[in-house]
UniProtKB/TrEMBL annotation:
PROSITE patterns for this protein: ABC_TRANSPORTER_2 (PS50893)
Ranges where the ABC transporter domain occurs: 21-258
Entry GO MF terms: ATP binding
Record's protein name: ABC transporter ATP-binding protein
InterPro entries in the cross-refs: AAA+_ATPase, ABC_transporter-like_ATP-bd, ABC_transpr_LolD-like, MacB-like_ATP-bd, P-loop_NTPase
Organism: Actinoplanes sandaracinus
Keyword Transport: yes
Pfam family, one: ABC_tran
Keywords: ATP-binding, Nucleotide-binding, Transport
Gene3D superfamilies registered for this protein in UniProt: P-loop containing nucleotide triphosphate hydrolases
Length: 268
């Protein structure tokens, strides 16, 4: 595992202003011998601060692996991951836990709310674990953004799937993390609830400068993003800016029939 920094002196300072998270030539190899799978093959990507980036690609292309590596949930085999100005690669467990707690927010397909806590308690839980006091004005604003004002005392079982995901969005937003990673956030929602959640995410980026990275299979969901990065066979093969759902669909179609950009790297 390499822990060297890349680029000339001063490059870190320049990248900090515009880059919330970065992968540099990241390889992730699972298993060994004949069972070896290279899930990521030299992925380099900068995730812009205050931007909404979607990661797409066919099943098995490495989307979840990339997100887990970027979020410090998994280690890389080779290469580097940075979150803000922190080199994540090589950090020990305690520092990684603190980094995730202080700098990263998560939104999962399955909501991952604690059933015994109310919506408000779920939303405030990460802050209370971190020993941080919520900013009252920001909390009120987040509740307004996600439209949960009359549901704060409800438990998850008393909320619809869409409402539960709004609680999860509020939980991620309220800590103002450096970056929010959303893994198929609309995968369990009907199209209307999904559109609402995507609307909140987009608004939090546009109006409040939040950085969001979202893995999705859905071209319509990806069209809410500022940028879409396409993976195939563990490599970045294409990207779109200001994407439409049709353009995303078209690019996905071309990925399925072969490389859209750089060729496949052989060997791990
Ligand atoms: N823990 C693991 N052990 C071995 N192989 C793994 C492991 N996790 C993922 N892989 C393999 O790595 C490759 C990429 O998997 P990954 O889950 O990142 O893809 P994905 O694009 O997120 O797929 P999907 O869209 O189906 O969720 C796949 O070939 C997968 O089988």
């Amino acid at each position: 595992m390499q822990t060297t920094t890349t680029g000339p002196p001063g490059a870190e300072a320049r990248q900090d202003a515009t880059v919330a998270a970065r992968a540099v030539d990241v390889w992730k190899v699972y298993g060994s011998g004949e069972a070896q799978v290279a899930a990521l093959r030299g992925v380099s990507v900068d995730l812009g601060r205050g931007r909404f980036t979607a990661i797409m690609g066919p099943s098995g292309s490495g989307k979840s692996t990339l997100m887990h590596c970027l979020a410090g949930l998994d280690t890389v085999t080779r290469g580097e991951v940075h979150i803000g100005d922190v080199l994540v690669t090589g950090l020990g467990d305690a520092k990684l836990t603190r980094l995730r707690r202080d700098q990263v927010g998560f939104i999962f397909q399955q909501f991952n709310l604690l059933p015994s806590l109310t919506a408000q308690e779920n939303i405030l839980l990460p802050l209370s674990i971190a020993g941080r006091k919520p900013d009252r004005d920001w909390f009120a604003q987040v509740i307004e953004i996600v439209g949960l004002g009359d549901r704060l005392s409800h438990r998850p079982s008393q909320l619809s799937g869409g409402q539960q995901q709004r609680v999860a969005c509020a939980r991620a937003l309220v800590a103002r993390p450096n970056v929010i990673f959303a893994d198929e956030p609309t995968g369990n929602l009907d199209s209307r609830s999904g559109a609402e959640v995507l609307g909140f995410l987009r608004r939090s980026v546009r109006d409040y400068g939040q950085t969001i990275v979202m893995v999705t299979h859905d071209p319509n969901a990806a069209s809410y993003a500022d940028r879409v990065v396409f993976l195939a066979d563990g490599e970045v093969r294409a990207e779109l800016h200001a994407p439409t759902a049709d353009a995303v669909l078209d690019t996905m179609g071309r990925l399925d029939t072969g490389p859209v950009g750089a060729g496949r790297t052989v060997g791990a």
